Amino acid sequence: MKLNWIKVDGLFTRFNHMIELKEDGLTIVHSPNGLGKSTLVKMVCLAFNGEWEELDAIPFRRLEFGFDEGMVLVFLKDEVMEVTLLDSGNIIPMTKDEVGDLHSVYYLGPQRLFIEESEGRYVSALDANSQRIAETYKEFISMAETIWVGSEDDELGDASFPDPHSKLHEVRARMTMAREAGLIPEMIDDSLVGELLDNEPTQWSEKQLKDLYRLSKVADALYPLAESAAALLDIINPMLFRKTLSLDSHEGFKVTLDEGKVIKVSKLSSGEKQLLLLLYAMMFEATPGGLVIIDEPEISLHITWQQCIASLFLSIGRARDLQIIMATHSPQVVHDRWDLTVELVV
Question: What pLDDT score was predicted for residue 79?
């Protein structure tokens, strides 16, 4: 289910705004300062992520969300805030959990370099994400090792493929992606993987069929993470200056200078940190089919990067099935895509 539009009446008692989301998947919201652009996009996050007390503290009269299936979610403030879903003529009271189940929203605000780990305690978002990547890598590698060991005693009948050559090509692509993403478990002999993947047999032995079967199960398990990791690295590494990002189960984000020295991710430039945070969120955190909101994506980015992020985020949105809203003051972010803009006016 997709969002079609967002409407607020009486924001700060004076503004009525309507955002119609673009069919291409990316909507760029801009306005003069003081019209409530950042507040409105934050309200979307508060509404769907159950932070209704904070939402209720913002002065507005009515907030609506229109979905492509014809349903309308309404937040109406009177003495208390009422939340209802209008669906086929029915008015259905909604709870926080029910609204959260309607749509996934991931929000990246202007202060995104730091996140609140506990009340009043803030930590580096990059460090937290790096640790999360390392833990995720460990989980997937452990799962792959379990699959590899567990499939050793499977009967050969389970390892039969109607067309082993086609299966080999599929496994080769997935294992190559996993290898490039640093996801091949150490217990899987890399020479075995290379021998099978790099040299296509003309006649298949029982051992080769069994190895292909076991590798196909590992490749299927690793593919969801490997695909996201490979996409992230393919996008960001050509943009980094004399350094390369990799991912692993020990450090999470690993940055290597061209001369071979490994540096902490905290030593990236401000713009590189911002870019990595944005890409990581869309590749690893946002739920496919959901909405990603980015307030002021231009922070710390050079003009050349600002000019390319609309096309970049469009591509990511299509690949990951995401709707994306960017709220910006920068004409460089819009660049040549004014067709994707919505202007908030008085």
Answer: 85
